[in-house]
Design a protein that fits this description.
Blueprint (H helix, E strand, L loop, with lengths): L31 E3 L26 E6 L12 E6 L5 E6 L20 E4 L8 E6 L12 E5 L9 E4 L10 E8 L8 E6 L5 E5 L12 E5 L10 E7 L8 E8 L4 E7 L12 E3 L4 E5 L8 E6 L12 E5 L11 E4 L19 E5 L8 E6 L12 E5 L14 E3 L16 E8 L8 E6 L2 H4 L2 E7 L5 E2 L4 E2 H4 L16
Antiparallel strand pairs: 1-4, 2-3, 3-4, 5-6, 6-7, 7-8, 9-10, 10-11, 11-12, 13-14, 14-15, 15-16, 17-18, 18-19, 19-20, 21-22, 22-23, 23-24, 25-26, 26-27, 27-28, 27-29
Pfam families: FG-GAP, FG-GAP_3
Protein name: FG-GAP-like repeat-containing protein
Organism: Streptomyces sp. 900116325
Length: 494
Amino acid sequence: MQKHKRTPVPSPTRIRLATATAAAAALTAGLVAVSASSASAVTGVARADADADFNGDGIGDTAVSASHAYVGGHAEAGQIAVVYGGTVSKKYTTISQNTAGVPGSAESGDVFGADSAYGDFNGDGYDDLLVSAPGEDVGSDKDGGTAAILWGSPSGLTGGTTVADPRPTKHDGFGGPAEAGDFNGDGKADFAIASENGSATVDIFTGPFTRTNTTGRHTTLSAAVHSGDGAGIWNLHSGDANGDGSDDLIVNGYSTETDYNANLWIPGSTSGLSAARSQRLPTGVITDLGDTDSDGYDDVVIGNFWADSNNKAESGAVSVVHGTVSGPSAGDTQKFTQETPGVPGGSEGGDGFGAEVDLGDVNGDGHLDLVVGTPGEDLTGGADAGAATVLYGAADGSGITGSGALFLEQNNAYVPNTNEKNDQFGSDVHLDDLNGDGRDEVYVGALGENGSNGALYPVRVNADGTLASSSGIYTSTLGISATGTPRLGANFTD
C-alpha cells in the first residue's frame, strides 16, 4: 500500500501509518508452525491479483511490519515478520538488521521495515523483499536512510544486499516510500525509492539485480509535489492503468496547488517512467491498482481518510478511478463512503474510512474485491476500536459494488479477540491467499492492540460469505519484544 510513510495526520490515533513505522524483530528460533491460511504464488512483479512467493513452493507468502520494535535493546530499531503460507499450516519468522546476512545492525531509530515491496529482482524464480530503514545512520550522515533486498530461496528469505543510495548528500530518509513494478515492460522487476524528508524526487532502479549489488540503469524522476518539511512524497504504488504492458507509478504527496494532498499518475513505457506525461488524480493518502471492471486496464483505488462525508469531518471516502487507454484521469470515478447503499455503518467524524485499501479476490469468483480499513471507527467496546469492510466485485465483473458488503470488527463471531478502545483494527488491511484454496483471506492489522504492541488478524471467509475460525498473531507469537510500542500490523507488504 504500501502503504507506510510519515504523513500529516489528523490525530495520533487516526493514522494510516503513513508515518514511517517499521516492523519485525530479531530472528526467532526456527520457524513457528501455526494454523492454516492461504495463497496462490506468483514470482515477479507484485500485482493486485498475485501473491508473493519467497520460497517458491507455489503457496503465497506475505510480510508485515512492527516498525517501532525494540531489537537488542535499541528503541524503534524495527523488524519485519514474514508469514509463509501453506495448505496445512503457516510458518512465521522475524527479521531485523541483527539477523545473520542482513546488511547493517539494529540501532535506535532505524525503523527497519518502515516500507517494503516485493518482486523477483534477480530472476531466479523466487520473490525477494525490498525493505527500507529510513532512520539508518549512514556513516556520519544521521538519518541518511538505507534499503536492502532480502533474497528469496527454497528456504525462504535469506541474506541481503544493500541498495546503495545514489544521492546520499541530497536528502535524508532514503528508503521511506518504496515500490516494485516493471516500469519499462521488459519482463524484469524494477523498483522505485523515495525519501521521507520532504524530497520530491524518486530514484528508479532498473532490473535485473544481483546479490553483488549490480543493477541496471538508475534514473531520477521529479514528481509535481511540494518538497520541504512535512511534505514531499508519502506513498508509491504501481500498476498498468493504460494497458500498454508497462507498469505505471502512482505518487502520493503534498500539493502546493491545493495546500492538501496530491495523487499523480506517472505512466510507464518501453523507455521507463515519464513524468512529463503525468496526470493528477483525486486526492487521497493511499492507493492500490487492479482491474476491477475486467476491461484490461488497471483501476486506481484511492483511500482518503481525511475526506468529509455527510458533513462529518474525516469520516473518510474511497474512490475507484477506472483506467483507460489514455490513462485513469480519462476514466469514470466511483465513490464509496459509509453512506453508500449497501455499505454497513454510517459516516461519523474521525472514522477514517479509506485509511487503508487493498484489492484481491475474497470469494474466489475471479473478480477483484476491495477491503477498506476504518481504524477510527467507534464501536461497542470503545472509541477507535476500528473496523474493516469488504466491498465485493459485481458477479458480472462490472466493478466494485456496495451490495452485500461484509463488515468486520473484533466482536464478530470468528474474528479473533474483542473490540477495545484504541485498538485501531483496520490500521492496515491486506488480501492474500496463504492456504491455496483460491480465495484470499482478509488480513487486518491493529497497531493499537495491547497498548500499541499491535497485532495481525487473519479473517477467513468461506465461499458462502460466512466467516471461519482463525487465530490472532501477536508480538508474543512472533517473538517480538513488547517493550515500547512495536505497532505490529502497521504496514503490510503489497
